[in-house]
């Protein structure tokens, strides 16, 4: 296991690498595309891999007066509403920091005096290349919400205890928001994330 981990985050391990032999583009939509790759496995045999391509996204842990800003929004794949932190996809060539500021203002009406990147993480590396850049926004100033024309949501401010209750109730069940709640808890206990 000595090949796991490095300063730059990526260590090649030739013993496990797969070689792409061909790619069949199946679907290209507004947000995602789907391809099926034929790959050569380390043992020489072949397999197929279904891959979802995504432009990436940003998410914002926005804190105001010991509360976190969240939005309640209907999620078609789940068939129900989900409470989440403000988030959205990156536009082509868009800087993630600027996207985070834009999404915060669009979905909550707030701007921030302080914002910093916490982490970037892949949502489902077994089949998708989507990466989410998570930011911490503080020193918030209220303004007007300006969601996308096909985006219907309600903004709320919740305490850490309420966030944990919403996780228990599975009203918060997405990875980015759960990660943000745990990061917020650490921040409230130690002053560091």
From TrEMBL:
The keyword Metal-binding does not apply. The keyword Hydrolase applies. It comes from the Bacteria. Its cofactor is Mg(2+). Keywords: Hydrolase. Belongs to the Nudix hydrolase family. PANTHER family: NUDIX HYDROLASE DOMAIN-CONTAINING PROTEIN, UDP/ADP-SUGAR PYROPHOSPHATASE. This is NUDIX domain-containing protein.
